[in-house]
Amino acid sequence: MSATLGPLKIIKQKNAINTGTVIFFHGSGDTGSGILDWVKFLIGDFTSPHLKFLFPTAPLRPYTPLNGEMSHVWFDRYDITPTVPEHEETLASIDDEIKNLIAGELANGTPLNKIVVGGFSMGGALALHTAYRSVPGLAGVFALSSFLNDDSIVYKALQDPSEGPDTPFIMFHGDHDTLVPSA
Hints:
Layout: E1 9-11, E2 20-25, H1 32-43, E3 51-55, E4 60-63, E5 69-72, H2 88-107, E6 115-120, H3 122-134, E7 140-144, H4 153-158, E8 169-172
Parallel strand pairs: 2-3, 2-6, 6-7, 7-8
Antiparallel strand pairs: 1-3, 4-5
């Protein structure tokens, strides 16, 4: 069963030709508009000559760590810790929407190897699932203050060399984050 995305914020390139797209997934409880506000707070208003930026909003769904309250989350979690199993059913439910978002960029002429996905917190985990499990062959993936569950299906996908080309990856993590201690 697919989950429907909320509103999409778009920052278009300055020039007429779009040569690449960055898709930025927000963290749990936030929205595309909310993470865009944070990005603008950190680096000011921004545009790129040739890059388009997409800030999608996760579906509104029950979120177990909030006692089932409705929240904008990409997938459900049994708890906010890497040691519990992933909620594979809700991870699968967002796949089609993310693939459709990427397919829209492909239809507009942006090649797959010119699309980067990334995100903050839960959005970073979704980006890792997207790049290494759902849509191999992307230009890159980034994750900010994120984690994968210890038994993540991403690790299983990475064991299979037939999954496609390696996607470059960068991860940033603060040393004051108490959820995922620095190594």
